[in-house]
From TrEMBL:
Sections of the chain in a coiled coil: 203-230
Descriptive protein name: Type II secretion system F family protein
Domain of life, source organism: Bacteria
InterPro entries to which the protein is assigned, alphabetical: T2SS_GspF_dom
Major localisation: membrane
Membrane topology summary: Multi-pass membrane protein
Natural source organism: Streptomyces thinghirensis
Transmembrane segments: 69-98, 229-249, 261-281
Record key words, sorted: Cell membrane, Coiled coil, Membrane, Transmembrane, Transmembrane helix
Domain Type II secretion system protein GspF: 123-243
Compartments reported by the entry: Cell membrane
């Protein structure tokens, strides 16, 4: 009986290998065919329609659920484990703080993206001017390629197309966070038009200055990585302490949430934790502001 089972298993493996062997489409196509064989002709990952709808629904919910709401979820979990409403209150209080941090990170990324767009705009505009285009026509071409003007792009391009106040439109566009380099572009444009100076040379110098400033910020961010890691470590120490307490067989949630000394330790520790994270964050932001 055992020999029959082994023989059947060997035959199944041989058939599976024949299905997976690349017959001209490569190894990956053979693997796909083998998966189809194992799934009885249904592509793996699709599943029944009901399962696909449920998966799509969960994916949409996950996409709409903001990361800050995990604070409330963690508080709810700790409230159930510790039989106390206090973690829910703390988790709900952490939602606006985390939302503010998320929005600040999004604004920072948008600002850096806009700074890169301004640098690309200066380089593309200098190349178009050297190619023999007039400044207005060169700006039209460079703006579409780089996208460094942001939302006021239509107003700037309209001024360039119809002979309007291009430097004024650039100064207005420079009010966007991260688009401050457009003020330098407006100055180069004004000098080139009023005094007949070379626009391409000025744009090259402006691009070099903006790139040097971006590289300096990147170096500073790399140097401040240690301070950020310290802030993350401070934020994670309480969780590590709770896990260590559970590992030792204690009940730290009961002590912290249902006893007087535990509540006092929780209050003092929370205040010190917040002060430590705030202090490290303040140091990082001050260094970035000075740069």
């Amino acid at each position: 009986m055992t020999g029959t089972v082994e023989l059947s298993t060997g035959v199944a493996l041989v058939c599976l290998g024949a299905a997976a062997w690349p017959a001209g489409g490569g190894w990956h196509s053979g693997i796909r065919r083998a998966r189809l064989v194992l799934a009885d002709g249904v592509a793996v990952g699709t599943g029944p329609p009901a399962l696909r709808r449920m998966t799509d629904g969960l994916r949409r919910v996950r996409g709409r659920l903001r990361p800050e709401w995990w604070s409330f979820a963690a508080g709810l979990l700790l409230a159930v484990l510790g039989s106390s409403v206090l973690p829910v209150v703390v988790g709900a209080a952490g939602v606006p703080v985390l939302r503010r941090a998320r929005l600040a990170g999004r604004a920072r990324r948008a600002r850096e993206h806009r700074q890169d767009g301004v640098i690309a705009l200066c380089g593309a505009l200098a190349g178009e001017v050297r190619a023999g285009r007039q400044p207005g026509e060169a700006l039209l071409c460079a703006a579409h390629d780089s996208g460094g003007l942001g939302e006021p792009q239509a107003a700037v391009l309209a001024a360039a197309r119809f002979g309007g106040d291009v430097p004024g439109a650039l100064v207005a566009a420079a009010r966007q966070p991260g688009a401050e380099g457009l003020r330098g572009l407006a100055a180069c444009w004004r000098v080139a038009v009023d005094q007949g100076a070379g626009l391409a040379a000025g744009l090259d110098r402006l691009e070099g200055a903006l790139r040097a400033e971006r590289d300096q910020r990147a170096d500073l961010r790399a140097q401040l990585a240690g301070a950020r890691a310290t802030a993350v470590m401070l934020a994670g120490l309480p969780v590590l302490g709770l896990l260590l307490g559970f590992a030792l067989g204690a009940d730290p949630l009961h002590v912290l949430l249902h006893t007087g000394p535990g509540l006092g330790c929780l209050l003092v520790g929370g205040v010190l934790e917040g002060l430590g994270v705030w202090w490290v964050t303040r140091i990082v932001r001050s260094a970035e502001a000075v740069s």
